[in-house]
Amino acid sequence: MVATARKQPLYDQLVDILADKIEHEYHAGDMISSERELSECYGLSRTTVRLALQELERLGLIVRQHGRGTFVADRSAQTTNLMQSYSFTEQMRELGRDPMTTILEFCDVEADKNLAEHMGVRLGEKLFKLKRLRSADGMPMMVERSYLPVRKFLSLKRPQLECKPLYDVIEKDYHEKISVAEEEFFASIARPADAYLLGISEGSPVLDLVRTTYNSSNEIVEYTLSVARADQFKYRVQHRRSE
């Protein structure tokens, strides 16, 4: 590899080369050569190659999966548009993908200061905590941690959540009519535990989502903190110019 006149760092040159290949030669899901292969091909150290791959991952161009390899990220319309009214199961089915939910944890906890403030409940009030892994076509997509006030869902049991969507349980089993759900999105990086569940590298780009769901009486019935793979979700806004 030949350095440019402006002394562009070697790893940065490799980023440009691979980004160009991703744009013009590769397709979503194609496997990228290993660190060793790239090192031998371009005459670079493994450290330099690793830095380049980390940058490509940060840019959302590749996905590194533990035990499988490095793949070109899917940035097509098949990614989920988070601007739409959100139901993971419904959106995956609309995209022709097979959604699956795995319950990782279901228990009751006491509201700490943070949860009490965000949910409008008393400090120490009992909440149900539901932690789920959301997947599509076998690919981990999102880790969700949901909190619900126990007083509104006293008889809630894990089997109910295993056989139907959470919103169906809320509305059909407990007759809590959902009126609005507010969501906020933040760019972030994957923490170790979430990275493991999502099958991505620690420090990979992710979206942190905060959803607050209200019933028809303007009471909070659900508060959810989610971590979503940045290569599988997008946020689209349409602006219209007034005449």
Describe this structure as you would to a colleague.
The protein is an alpha+beta fold and 243 residues long. Helix content is 29%, strand content 33%. It contains eight helices and eleven strands. Strands 5-6-7-10-9-8 form a six-stranded antiparallel beta sheet. A three-stranded antiparallel beta sheet has the order 1-3-2. A hairpin with a 3-residue loop joins strand 2 (62-65) and strand 3 (69-72).
Identify the notable features of this structure and list them briefly.
single chain, 243 residues, alpha+beta, 6-stranded antiparallel beta sheet, 11 strands, 29% helix, 33% strand
Cα-atom Rg, whole angstroms? 21 Å
Order of SSEs: HEHHEEEHEHEEHHEHEEE
The structural class is alpha+beta
- Strand % is 25-35%
Enumerate the spans where pLDDT stays under 50 for 5 or more consecutive residues.
Answer: 2-6, 77-85
Strand order of the largest sheet: 5-6-7-10-9-8
Largest sheet composition? 6 strands, antiparallel
Shape: elongated
Number of H- or I-type helical stretches: 8
Number of E-type strands: 11
- The average pLDDT is 84
Distance between the termini: 54 Å
Helix content: 25-40%
Present the secondary structure layout.
Blueprint: H1 10-24, E1 31-32, H2 35-42, H3 46-58, E2 62-65, E3 69-72, E4 80-81, H4 88-94, E5 99-110, H5 113-119, E6 126-136, E7 139-149, H6 158-163, H7 166-173, E8 178-189, H8 192-198, E9 205-215, E10 220-229, E11 233-234
Parallel strand pairs: 4-11
Antiparallel strand pairs: 1-3, 2-3, 5-6, 6-7, 7-10, 8-9, 9-10
Helix pairs in contact: 1-3, 2-3
